[in-house]
Amino acid sequence: MIAIMAAQSGDATNNHGLNLKKAQAICKLSKELKGSAMRAGRDSRSKITAILELEAVFAAMIPNATKGTADDDCADYDEVYQEANRTVTETIKKIPALAETAAATAAAAGRAAGVLDEFLAALAQGTGAGTTYCIQGSDTNAATQADLADCLNTDLKPQNMVQLKDTKVEAASQHEADLTKLAKALAAAGTVTSFAGSQATKGCGLVVGAADGIMVGQALSGSFAWAQGLIRFGAGNANGLTSTGVTADSHTTTAADANLHWASDPEKIPVIAEAIALAEGYKSIANSIAERPRNTIEKVKTCMKAKNKEIKREPIFLNVSHLNRELKKAVAERDKALSSQHANTTPKQQTNCSNKKETECGTAPGCGWRKAEGKCEAKDDGQGETNAATGTGDGAAGNTANTTASNSFVIKTSPLWLAVLLF
């Protein structure tokens, strides 16, 4: 709804420029927009860091590895494991959207603050002799830096506008501002008396569309807007104020309009509306994550550091990489044992006795000299096979070592160790 307010003729002390209350409302919104930009960037970085940290901590857990007690603040290890799994799965998917909306929010908020800053900087510098000015101060004179402290540092020069790195912005970033409420305050603060009086003859040419106002020696050929339509006026003398509804960039101002129009719903000005919408979008995603990752990390760490356990376990169960190393080591030992047994139990080739001379036959394993035949032959009493297998001569048959039993023991113990690891 368009609210039209009657033009007000100014009095002797308030007919030269923007009302201070209105200017301060603009500065307040600008500062909070900058704070919102900083907060979105910092908050998204914190949440993404927590999600990635939880993912790393979760990787060090093994389901059913241990169970803490109520005294450990870990009554159910398995439930904490499942909660960590759910939180990682659900929140890690939101990282791209969180980062994207945070960047967009910061950019839009910074852009909106810049538009307002440029408007304030131009008007703040508009001062003339005596009591002529574009922004009225706390008395009958022009506004000072102290009057506009949310916008300016030191003095009214544009290079001294409050920046993102300033402590004022840092303080603003510590809380969540209601940007819609702050934007609406631009219409509510000092609407009637702002720019009251005949501006063509009483002061600020920055809001005059007639000759020698914005243009030298001639009037505007169309309408003129400050801050994307926060103020809009035509070619006539801006000698009164009306409040005009804003829908996108649509205003009722015409080229020949003699009145100064101030937006009655500044929250609909495009640059401000975009910043508000993106900030709300980021807030929705951020709230869906909240402190879940950080809280889950603390639960996991509490359980993994619990001192009292219903089931005692070695630290191996709390570190997946260590478990894998031990498992590989056990498999290697088993393979080594199998290779050793194969080498020790493979029968040696039977000694060829037929080509042995009498002097050689007695010392050859498994061979014996047959006097009747006058030749060396393999013994047929079984002793030769034993000697050949053990590599000993006839005289050492009683010292045969039984390595088969010890090899069997090695083979059996490795799978047992492997079973313990996998338990």
TrEMBL record:
Transmembrane segments: none annotated. GO terms for biological process: symbiont-mediated evasion of host immune response. It is found in: Cell membrane. Residues 338-354 have a biased composition (Polar residues). InterPro entries: Trypano_VSG_A_N_dom (IPR001812), VSG_C_dom_sf (IPR027446). Residues 3-260 form the Trypanosome variant surface glycoprotein A-type N-terminal domain. Residues 386-402 have a biased composition (Low complexity). GO terms for cellular component: plasma membrane; side of membrane. The keyword Repeat does not apply. It comes from the Eukaryota. Residues 334-364, 377-402 are annotated as: Disordered. Keywords: Cell membrane, Glycoprotein, GPI-anchor, Lipoprotein, Membrane. It is a lipid-anchor; GPI-anchor. VSG forms a coat on the surface of the parasite. The trypanosome evades the immune response of the host by expressing a series of antigenically distinct VSGs from an estimated 1000 VSG genes. This is Variant surface glycoprotein 1125.56. It comes from Trypanosoma brucei.
